[in-house]
Amino acid sequence: MRTVSALVRHEARLLVSLVLWVTRRRHGTDGSHGGDGGGGVQAFGYARGQGATMFAFAFVCVIETVAMFVLLRDWPTVHLVVLVLDVYTIEFVIGLHAASVVRPHVLDVNSRSLRLRYAAHVDLRLPLEKVAAVRRELRTTHERTEGELALAIGAQTTITLELTEPVAHFTLFGRRRDIRLVRFHADDADTLVRAIRQLIAPERTAPSARPSPSGRPG
């Protein structure tokens, strides 16, 4: 029953994502269409590198649907079942891409948090005080490692986050994983890395408030 509920919620998120995609809106960015949602909220997309692949896959599914429609027209029952499955597959593929577009990563300056997302599968909030280090790092291979979460797009990640302590991440079916390192992709990785560094290490850019040896403020 738990698995069925998780799948229903996932399908609902895909359908909502399709509606948001058609209406050119984003989820969780204060209605922003651009990179900055206002009020200290910045959205960073990650779907640019997979768009061509997803639409090519959807096109192949459409061709298959047409072919099966012709081949199975003399078997009405089988024809109907296959048609429903083919249409669902097309909707699923487009929904995945739509979810990736309308559910970007979100950096919230006000709450000092980073919300990492991957289509309708992953939605992980990280308090910035738990980020020990962030770096721009291109990786094209990702082995499943305990305590590591990899959100690859097009088989690559471009940013690595090291955490000061484990953070709970729950999979699509509710299984808990304790994460200490996150690798993910952002289309504008350099800008996101700079923004995170400015928030997790403000003392590096703030002027010193220590008094000078003469007793006057430095």
Overall strand count: 9
Q: Tell the overall outline.
A: elongated
| Main β-sheet description | 5 strands, antiparallel
Q: Helical content, roughly?
A: 25-40%
Give the strand order, joined by hyphens, for the main sheet: 1-2-3-4-5
Please state the average pLDDT score.
85
The N- to C-terminal Cα distance equals 65 Å
Q: What's the tally of helices?
A: 4
Backbone CA Rg? 22 Å
Detail the poorly predicted runs.
31-35, 203-218
Notes on the structure:
This protein is an alpha+beta fold and 218 residues long. The chain has helices at 2-22, 51-71, 76-102, 189-200; strands at 36-38, 41-44, 105-108, 113-118, 122-127, 131-139, 148-151, 157-170, 176-184. The strands form 2 sheets. The chain has a 5-stranded antiparallel sheet with strand order 1-2-3-4-5, covered by helices on one side. A hairpin with a 3-residue loop joins strand 4 and strand 5. Mean pLDDT is 85; it is low at 31-35 and 203-218.
How are the SSEs ordered, and which strands pair?
Blueprint: H1 2-22, E1 36-38, E2 41-44, H2 51-71, H3 76-102, E3 105-108, E4 113-118, E5 122-127, E6 131-139, E7 148-151, E8 157-170, E9 176-184, H4 189-200
Parallel strand pairs: 7-9
Antiparallel strand pairs: 1-2, 2-3, 3-4, 4-5, 6-8, 8-9
Concise account of the structure shown:
This protein is an alpha+beta fold. It has one domain. The chain has helices at 2-22, 51-71, 76-102, 189-200; strands at residues 36-38, 41-44, 105-108, 113-118, 122-127, 131-139, 148-151, 157-170, 176-184.
